[in-house]
Design a protein that fits this description.
elongated; D-Maltodextrin-Binding Protein, domain 2; six-stranded mixed beta sheet; 6 helices; alpha/beta; 2 domains; 27% helix
Length: 192
């Protein structure tokens, strides 16, 4: 029976799990991998759908009844946090596209934006920059490689939330955690 795994398609996740996913770990079971947006993996973990899953650290309070936090493979970092991006010359920000309500990016955004009011909409992370560039949103909260590619969309960084977090706390940014289903490996969820 295959081990069910859900991770994002970001380079960090694919690198960390490359050997396991491609059968390069001696004695490991075959792996049935699902690549999904972090908001999707957070939600799937709430339902206990995978044996192993990469989630946002911000989602842990809703997940630890079903999963255990593994002591390795997670993502903590410096100089790599989410960005709030806008179109060049955007002076007023009322609407913000976010990658999920239980993402670390959104938790950092809420802390940074305390006292300010924004209307937010959850959008798959790969659709955030095009949505901001097209004027659908005044700003977007971007993660993963979008931290480096946003200028290609004609966007500018309003705030580097990682930089803000590090200056405020002196701590690395808690990005993503690897969780294992409590009670051991049970294979794919029914219907999965």
């Amino acid at each position: 029976m295959a081990l069910s795994l859900a991770i994002s398609p970001c380079p960090n996740d694919t690198f960390v799990f490359h050997a396991l996913v491609h059968g390069l770990v001696p004695g490991a079971p075959p792996v049935d991998v699902t690549y999904a947006d972090v908001d999707v993996t957070n939600t799937a973990a709430e339902k206990g759908e995978y044996d192993l899953v990469k989630v946002s650290y911000a989602a842990l309070p809703w997940l630890l009844d079903k999963y255990e936090l593994l002591p390795c493979g997670g993502a903590l970092g410096r100089g790599c946090g989410p960005l709030v991006v806008t179109r060049e010359g955007q002076s007023e920000v009322k609407t913000v596209a976010i990658p999920g309500e239980r993402t670390t990016a959104y938790l950092l955004f809420r802390r940074w934006a305390e006292g300010r009011e924004f209307e937010t909409e959850v959008v798959p992370f790969h659709e955030i920059m095009p949505g901001v560039a097209a004027g659908r949103f005044d700003a977007g909260l971007v993660i993963h490689e979008a931290r480096f590619t946003y200028p290609r969309h004609g966007l500018t960084a309003l705030q580097d939330l990682g930089e803000w977090w590090e200056a405020k706390t002196g701590l690395p940014i808690p990005l993503g955690a690897i969780l294992a289903r409590r009670g051991g490996w049970v294979g794919p969820a029914p219907g999965g």
